[in-house]
Fold this sequence. Notes:
By secondary structure, the chain is α+β, with helices and mostly antiparallel strands. It has helices spanning 25-35, 58-61, 110-118, 195-210, 313-326, 335-351, 377-385, 438-442, 448-452; strands at 3-8, 14-19, 43-47, 50-51, 68-73, 80-86, 99-105, 133-137, 147-157, 160-162, 181-194, 278-279, 285-289, 354-360, 366-372, 395-401, 404-408, 425-432, 465-467, 482-485, 488-493.
Amino acid sequence: MALHVVIIDTKFRRHSVKTTPTTHLTDILHEACKKWNLNAAEYGLRHNNKLVDLSLTIRLSGISSGAKLELVLVSRSPSVVSVALQLPESESTGITNGRLVDKFPSNTTLWLMLRQFESGASGGTGTKNFTQQGVPHTEGGSIGAGRLFYLTPVLQVIGRELSSFEDLQKTLGQLGINSGTALLRLSFRSTDTPLEEAMENITSYFKSVEGDKSTGAITTTVGSGESTPQTSPDISEELQRLKAPHDPTENSKPTDLIDREGGNVSSNQSTSSLASPISGSSQRAVSVFAAPSSTVPQAARQAFNEADYEPTIDHAKRHQARLANSTRNQRLPTDKEIATQQEMKAQKSAEIKDIRIKIRFPDQSSVVMTFSNHETAENLHDAVRGMLEHETESFLLSFTAPGGPKIIPRDSKDELIGKFGMKGSTLVNFFWDEGASAIARSGNVLNQIYAEQAQDIVVKEVEGVEVDDERGSGLTLGKGKEKEKDGRKGQFKWLKLPGKK
């Protein structure tokens, strides 16, 4: 019975691969990825919930015939591998143990490693020539003075022989070597290709793969029968391929009526849209707003384009960049830095003279009052209680602090600005306590005196902003409604009001 293994991918597709005891697991991986049009460099094989060593053969891995191997995603970041190159006797003169040792990323090709070793940057006695050697042959086939023919380098890697130029373009990762150490044995084999023709083939190969970049290309001088290797770029440049993502620019806060992050009233609401202030029970100016007359939110009645709310590629990239930045380790602040931050926060709070607080009631009516920097939570509760129809009933006030929703204590002497961190315009939600009566819950919240003077909130409609369609490149703007204007096609971006999700 023929030996085989079954590969199962992430979509539970199955593919049977015929094997022999000497088949390498990396060859099985490449065959399965070729079957499903996948990049083998991004995947690995797992057996019994353990990743297998792709550099081993079926016999050495202990995998039996018919075993099920899972195709799983692996890290795309290259790891460092310590590579030792065992030289033949003709090239090992003056080199300790006849070996050159250096470290390479796992996505480095064998050819590029040979170029690095022959440059003399790996502790050798000088430059070597591993990739462009030639040997003269006469017409009769004997070695002597004659035309130079190419000597191709041959590498023995974990029991397999790699001699062709295509084989030498494989990376360590493709051979299953992703970490630890590896030993490469170097030898040479004569070919029937003239040296100058082989050099032209190598140069044209790199030009076809990398365009004008000829990193691995070689220049030779054949006139004197000798060849001179070009110095390859430092292999450390390969370790710099993975760059950190750019810090995404933070999006500005939405221009809603209410700031959803901090519970603050947006500054877009002009003072002219507020109701004319009246005198409250505590002799402070109060602006009263009536509850909405329609059960349909005003934002739902505005014309909009569904395409404005569809995420684009730019949104996905920014989200991924933001997630990547959040996973980076950050240094914790020192005690001195924490003390400095607290001093700066206290100084900023002391500079605030007054704040405007909007209290929103369960029936969606609201009032706006101004408090100075020395007033406390008790003053806020007293001001709200003096406007209620049922002043004796217990209630709670809460607002959205930076750490989340926070209850404002009833009899607290803490300052609204200094202790609770309120600033600018803040939204406070009113709701009845558990001990409140059913009459208070079902009746009017505001006293009749204030309810009669309530005015409707006037929200000015903002005209659409005409923008070019930049969807898919750079910052994506709302698409809005298309309209012909000045002979070209423009688009409107509408204001997104509260209630639209």
